Each structure stands twice: as C-alpha cells, then as structure tokens.
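MODEL INPUT / OUTPUT PAIR
PAIR INDEX: 1
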Amino acid sequence: MSAYDEQIKCHDYRIDPDFWKDPYGVEVSHDTLKFLFIPDHVSAYITSVLAHKVYRYQIDNIRTKEQITHAVMITMGGLLPGVMLHDHLAWTLNKNIPPIEFGTLGVRYYAGPGQPLDQPRIIHPLSIEVEGRVVGVVEDLVDLGGTARFVGQYLVEERKARKIVLIAPFLKTKNVIEEMDVIFFGHVPKDTWIITPRERVETLIKRVPHWRDHGATLEECNENLRTIGYPEYLLDTYLRATYERG
C-alpha cells in the first residue's frame, strides 16, 4: 500500500503530519491533474494545528496590539476551515487573547477544477464590520493568490480594515507570503486538485464528464474515483447518473 493510500484510509492515531505538510496527489486516467482526497478526521487535525498557529500569532502580538479580532470566511472554500477554526478561536481562556468574531464574504474565482475565472468576483456581501481591525482572511487553499490579494485589497481599501492576515490550510504559491502575513499548515504542488470534505460531490460531478469526454468508460471513471479515495456510497449515488448525463 502506498503512503497516499495509507493516509487517506488511516485512523486518527495514524495520521502522518509530515505527509500532510507536503502531500502529493494521485494520477488517474484521462486527466492531467492529480487529486488529493482529504478525509474528515485529517481535515479536523489540520484545522487544530492551524488554530494553534493562530493562537501563537496572538500571543506573539500581545505587545504590538496587532492581534486578530475578526475573521472573514471566504465562501465557499473558507467555510469549512472557518467553522472549524471558530470552534477553537471564538472563545478564549486567556484574558490577553481576544475572542475572534467570524463573518463571511462571498468570492468566486474558479468555475471548476483547474479553471480560474478572469478575475475574482464578490457574490455575497461582507457580513461583519472590520473598520480599524486586524482581520484574518480564511481560505481552504491559496492557489494563484488572486483571491487573497483581491480580498485583502477590498477589506483595506473599501472596508477600512487595519491589517490582513491570511489563514489557510494549504498554499500552492509562496509569493503571497511576501505580500502579507500568512498562517498556513502545508504546501501542495500546483498540478494537484485538493478534494476537501465540502466538495467531494462537486468534484465528482464536474470531473466525471471531463473523463468521459476524453474517452473514459464508466468502469474507468469508477476506477479513477476509487484510486482517489472516494467511498463506495458516493459512487453508488452519483457515478452512473453523472456519467450518463448529457
């Protein structure tokens, strides 16, 4: 069994932090992208480590008064890590560490796996006031960095935030680190599509027709999804209907 297979099928006590800090995806037929499937318990583990890093940032900035007081979850991707971070960071047992108020901002930058739009677009308004605040911007992945730059500029210039700190489980580019403070867990290669717990069905529905149109049979699509790590119940529910859809 490969390291990939071991990690997507492992129990909580067998999570390998080194693998997930620098993970790799698997190749499948009829596709140039690689795919990385993130199990629920691994997502929870990564979020807990990320929350600890945010807490460390808060401690380091007690004297500077640059602690994060507000966090903006970028929908849809930032919702899952954001809600899980909320469980760690919306409360405090240390009087020197402020609880973080969470809100949302809807931004769209991708039409599908590997298909960025020409520019990010705001599709849902900001739900909290951030004027004069240090704001954590929560994403699930920083790919080209376009969304992070767009949101950072919007919050500072339009909503008068004092400072932006990007918070994301994974980065694909290191360029954004040179432009703003970034708290992250690990890196993934640019050719790898991460499948988080919130987008398993979405990825299946968008990618199976791509494979089919590039010559894949139903059986090959089934094998691709199994190789990636999809559970049987999702294949039973969605695969044939998606493949046969016109």
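PAIR INDEX: 2
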Amino acid sequence: MKKLLFAKQWNWKVSGIMLGISFVLAVVAVKPIGVSTQFVILDGIIMDLFAGDTVVEDAEAASGYSSPNAYLNKSGGKYAKNIAKPMNYSFIFVLAMVAGGFVAARLSTSKPDTADQLSPPVWRKKFGSSPVKRCAVVFIGGFLVLFGSRLAGGCTSGHMMSGMMQTSLSGYLFAAGAFAVAVPTAMLMYRKEK
C-alpha cells in the first residue's frame, strides 16, 4: 500500500478509479462535487470586504440573505448566503483541494527539475522557457475556462464529472463542448512545424 501511495506517479487507471470512487463517495455522503461556483463566492466575499453592502440579511429571501447584485441574489439568495457564511462544504472542499495538492507534492518521491516546475517540456520546445509568457497564457486560459464554466452554469467537476456520473444531459453536452474546443485548440497550439 505504501508503494502505491508514494509511487512516482499513479498509473492512469488507478487515478481514474480513485477519482471515480471520490465522486461516488461525495454524491452519496454529501452532494455532487462542483468547484467554479466557489470562485463567485470568493469574489463576493472580497467585494463585501470593500463595499460592505454586497450581502444583507433578508427575512423575505428563501435563504435569509439577499444582495443588490442580481447574480448573487439568484436562487432565493443562495449565493448571498454562501458569501455571508462561507464555511460550508463546497468552500472547504476547494480549500482542501489546494491543501491536498500541497501535501501530495510534499509526499511525492518524484521531484521535477526546476525547468519542469515552470513549464512542461512540450511547452518549452514550442514556445520557449519564458516564465512570464507561460504564466500569462495559463492565466488567460484559466480565465476563459472559468468564464465559460460560469456561463454554462457549472465546471468540469460539476457538469462533466458529477453530471455524467448522474447521467445528466447537461453533463454530456458540456463534455462534448469541452472536447470539441480543447482538442482543436491543442492541435493548433502544438502542431508540428514543417
């Protein structure tokens, strides 16, 4: 067991099985996993720190909270409540993902060299080793993915992983759309020079 947990890298089959078990346990024990909404909640928390009136208690709202921001006020003030009381399952789940990544990196017996920590070899071969360029492209890509996720009403965790596991039509449509964009984009970005 120790060898399996601290191996250089898990086999993709083992990783897939562990991911599937994690999603099933989450759905059975608490609720389906979804992450992108928590970025909205974090934005709301930061906005409330500076504006102060982003979320207000409201006895008329289904959640007991409302917001002058229409997006945060939707679903009876559900997002507004999560901003007022962020220490819930979903927000802690996102924090645990960050902590889990940190712990996994510390426990890993395989340590990439400095260049691989900044960018993978396939990136360096095609675009060079500039960390600024790599960070800019990663930030833009992350922004577009998060924007698209919120536009679609959920992310790859919520729609694709949890949704498909529950045989949700939106999950299958999201996955088809994600692959329809991701595969050609990767082919364009990493096409071989003639």
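PAIR 2 NOTE: The chain has ten helices and two strands.
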